[in-house]
# Entry
Amino acid sequence: MKTRFVLIEPSHAGNVGAVARAMKVMGFDDLVLVAPRWPNVLRRDEAIQRASGAVDVLAAARVVPRLDDALDGITHLCATAMTPRDFGPPTRAPRAHFGELLGRARDGHGETGVAFLFGPERYGLSNDDVYRCHVALSIPTNPAFGSLNLAAAAQVIAYEWRQALGGYGVDTPADAPDRADAQAIAGVLAHWHQALVAIGFLDPQAPKKLMPRLNQLLLRAQPTVTEIHILRGIARNLLRLRPHPGEQAHKNDPV
# Structure
């Protein structure tokens, strides 16, 4: 589905750059500015600095004089408005609305292009711009302080939309440690059972819940293979250090 971010009359070049960055980290690159305060906003230093690596999004962005010029190929308009408008579209949280929108698409009744509209920093979208949208997206925030910076709002919308589309997997470092499997866990528990009995810490006739508790401890810890080797090495040394029966009797002889 075509995805476009539309900034209507943005007044701060830095915010434009920050929105470009918010879009790029979520994999979007279609940015349109409607009647920005600065005609050369895409080339201003503040925009380039705040884009911080997303200058390609700025380079590909369009500047148009009217909102109508920003909506080619778009079939679903989402206003970003914290305050519901009388006679306006329904107000929805982004996550709930995106789920329904993509559900309709999977059923063959979806849209071919979606645009997210963001209003001027000082006063937000006009009523007329909100009225022409299919939905007003309201980001759930602290009721006592719900004001979001333009770039912050764009980042939240971009993230929620990307998640709805399937999201990105979290990369696992190549050198991530291998977690010990269930067989290794059982092996170290058996080894520790033997060692704890040998040093007299565990009474095999009355073990109570010691071993099940150690089992749960290991499951919560999710030890690596290397850590299992360490634990088994400790158990081996405990077994080596255990006194032999004759030595124990000698130690107990009266002086």
Summary: The domain at 2-164 is CATH 3.40.1280.10 (Alpha/beta knot). The longest strand covers residues 2-8.
